[in-house]
Amino acid sequence: EVQLVESGGGLVKPGGSLRLSCAASGFTFSTYSMNWVRQAPGKGLEWVSSISSGSDYIYYADSVKGRFTISRDNAKNSLYLQMNSLRAEDTAVYYCARRTYGSSWLLDQWGQGTLVTVSS
Amino acid sequence: NFMVTQPHSVSESPGKTVTISCTRSSGSIASNYVQWYQQRPGSSPTAVIYEDNQRPSGVPDRFSGSIDSSSNSASLTISGLKTEDEADYYCQSYDSSNHVVFGGGTKLTVL
Fold this sequence. Notes:
heterodimer, A: mainly beta, 7-stranded mixed sheet, 4-stranded antiparallel sheet, globular, B: mainly beta, 6-stranded mixed sheet, 45% strand
């Protein structure tokens, strides 16, 4: 069974940092591109970042570029999101999501999410 | 870059058919595949349509997707509505910079 389990969320002050992790199991993690998607309270989905299977290709939403860093460790079946210079508007549930093979950009598996709250 | 726009909410009665639209702001809707996700309250999103009109395994055939070049939009149609279909629905595509683009979401009420 495919599982994606996020962790690392919590309360952080504006300007602070946080590192999210996503532990993957039940599939060959090293062959899939992975993504972070967030959802502010009561709001819609917002794509944050993606990373290719071998970390060759990395993309960020304009809203987080320069502040967030996506990375992965295929030996540990883990995806990460380092979040720096956090702002109140970064408050959201952060999901890791697997992109399926092919050209469609289908995110076919999602974790349960981890809540990040940025507040003084 | 482009945006995709969805109606904020739709409602329909059980057993009826509802269609949710997703309109692309620039560039052709046919240029990049469209996916649709269902998100029930308190749950993570799950895909109900991928590559414009394909259903993932386990999704009932009451769910169908299409694109219309004349209106530059994609549509998700749910027939034989059930109360369990009440959820938020999001369309998603991607741009030439490999950025994922989500619509703002549509709240479906089955009353």
